[in-house]
């Protein structure tokens, strides 16, 4: 089969690799229908994240179950399934608490020798704990929205949950990438009364507004803090979603939170070196940082995606065939593509 | 009157100063009955915190109202009152939300030209918003416990609340000073099922056990993390109270939290320079840091203190007259006194 393999920063190749097969009795093999490229894929591609030559790429996919191991009970060949970006056994202490990213038997696609999602097929460990079957008769035109449940929408949702977004909360979202935009969508879904999107790109701000943003702030750094304070009567916002992962984004997030407010940070913090703890102390700020347990949220978000009531599809602004995954990375890195959809096969 | 005045780090003098009088119509003057010394008083005394020569010291006191300004409505001369360590107007946006430490008209005793609590009397701004009258007939033998409501017990309680302590939570408390011990007491009061006190001092560990600690861990640093993990089946605890304010204490606090856990930090973070944000991300940790809005908690904690059901008095292990405040600081700095009670006058 074809799969995307990373050789070096900037050197990604879609090439022939052995077809995946069931190895463990709890495995399944999934033929990929749709996959996509994540902002976090670019960290390794740019050489910022630790990099293992030869690793597979991609951690978001939706597809059709082709084979199941003898101990797989809840899945059968032919089912359409969506995979969260990490596999998990569904039974350990952390999985039972809904924190599948800490699963004692878990991992993230592409780590070590595991398969990646940017491929024609994937061997899925702990298939029962990991994969979520879609309802019979799910319309093909909703599959792109369902693919967003692999990572980007649950991650925006996780930022909102960690920031304490609830009915009538005032919210600001730092970062106008696909995750930040999904954070806007998730905040609207959770009933926020005001959602300030921080964006200086007109096309992304337009998606933010479509997703429920009530205000757009284009400033950055101290000017962004001043502007948000200005439009909130000097008070700041209850909840801040930090969806970038840099020192500047974190400083902005803390600076625009109201005293007693809460920041939920999902930007992979490769470029966060400092936190202003003195400010947190004097203003009673909370910070929760975390990789989203996407598996915990898929069932909750799926009905709203299937109905189109909260539809993340607008984050996918360009589609590519599998062979053009390297171009998709280049386009996302150049910011000419917000989030690349990769069409692999038909369901 | 006599008041304690700080001249330089290590140079504290109890000397004659002008008697306080009502200046603003919302002021009261309180004759001090009991005051005490806080661990945070030592930061300035040791020269670690910013220091203003000539400032008054002490921010915890209980006393009798002597005079009230013409706009004070809820207090009358002769009432016994306890003061939280910060004054607040009780009416601003933040006070209405229970975050009186962010009051737009607030301040902390001893800041600027304000009076300090280690004195014979104190001018209290925003008296109605600040002072809490005690019930008629409060027995004299309960006043030491009520004095603890100025700061140390609400601060321990705030750490527990920020760490999310609730019924059946597993808890660890980093720091065996008076605040940490009150954090143990507050966690017991909130229904924690297990409370691990981190202490290497036998006398303090004994108070921790009396306050409800189920385990005592004497190790520090990485050994403390290993020990807590060992006694929690490798999982760590749900809630960690960080009651020190150093890099090591913060690292220990994050290290012993279970994945998905929460740290509440009340140690004044003069010596916190770094936070391991990558660990927080991979393990989904939360951190809330804050100065306790003591005023918000006094009414809640007062009945349990008056009944003796949750009695913080054991944190006061030595009593001093006002004239010996400098010795009290020296003894606390040398750790021969845990928390110094200062007896100023009779109620």
Provide a descriptive summary of the structure in words.
- Two copies of one chain form a homodimer.
- Chain A has 347 residues and is of the alpha/beta class.
- Chain A has two domains: 2-151 and 293-343, Medium-chain alcohol dehydrogenases, catalytic domain (Quinone Oxidoreductase, Chain A, domain 1), CATH 3.90.180; 155-289, Rossmann fold (3-Layer(aba) Sandwich).
- Helix content of chain A is 29%, strand content 25%.
- Chain A is built from twelve helices and 18 strands.
- In chain A, helix 5 packs across helix 6 (178-189).
- The two termini of chain A are 17 Å apart.
- The model of chain A has no long low-confidence stretch (mean pLDDT 97).
- The A-B interface holds A 93-94, 97, 99, 101-102, 162, 235, 250, 259-260, 262, 265, 268-269, 272, 274-275, 277-278, 280-291, 293 and B 93-94, 97, 99, 101-102, 162, 235, 250, 259-260, 262, 265, 268-269, 272, 274-275, 277-278, 280-291, 293.
- Strand 16 of chain A pairs antiparallel with strand 16 (285-289) of chain B.
């Amino acid at each position: 089969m074809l799969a995307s393999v990373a050789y070096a920063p900037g050197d990604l190749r879609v090439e022939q690799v052995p077809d995946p097969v069931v190895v463990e009795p709890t495995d399944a093999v999934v033929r990929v229908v749709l996959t996509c490229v994540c902002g976090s894929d670019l960290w390794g591609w740019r050489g910022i994240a630790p990099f293992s030559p030869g690793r597979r790429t991609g951690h978001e996919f939706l597809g059709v179950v082709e084979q199941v191991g003898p101990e797989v009970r809840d899945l059968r060949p032919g089912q359409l399934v969506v995979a969260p970006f990490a596999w998990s056994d569904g039974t350990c202490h952390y999985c039972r608490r809904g924190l599948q990213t800490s699963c004692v038997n878990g991992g993230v696609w592409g780590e070590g020798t595991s398969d990646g999602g940017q491929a024609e097929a994937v061997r899925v460990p702990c298939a029962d704990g990991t994969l979520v079957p879609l309802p019979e008769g799910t319309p093909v035109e909703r599959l792109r929205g369902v693919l967003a449940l692999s990572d980007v929408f649950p991650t925006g949702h996780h930022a909102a949950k960690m920031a304490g977004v609830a009915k009538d909360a005032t919210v600001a979202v730092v970062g106008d990438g696909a995750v930040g935009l999904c954070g806007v969508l998730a905040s609207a879904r959770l009933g926020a009364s005001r959602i300030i999107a921080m964006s200086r790109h007109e096309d992304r701000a337009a998606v933010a507004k479509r997703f429920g943003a009530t205000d757009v702030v284009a400033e950055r750094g101290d000017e962004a803090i001043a502007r948000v304070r200005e439009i909130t009567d000097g008070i700041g916002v209850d909840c801040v979603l930090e969806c970038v992962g840099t020192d500047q984004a974190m400083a902005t997030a803390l600076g625009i939170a109201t005293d007693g407010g809460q920041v939920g940070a999902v930007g992979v913090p490769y470029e966060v070196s400092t936190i202003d703890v003195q400010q947190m102390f004097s203003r009673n700020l909370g910070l929760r940082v975390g990789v989203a347990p996407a598996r915990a949220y898929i069932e909750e978000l799926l009905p709203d995606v299937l109905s189109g009531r909260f539809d993340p599809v607008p984050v996918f602004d360009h589609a590519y065939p599998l062979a053009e995954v390297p171009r998709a990375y280049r386009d996302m890195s150049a910011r000419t593509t917000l989030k690349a959809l990769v069409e692999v096969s038909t369901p």
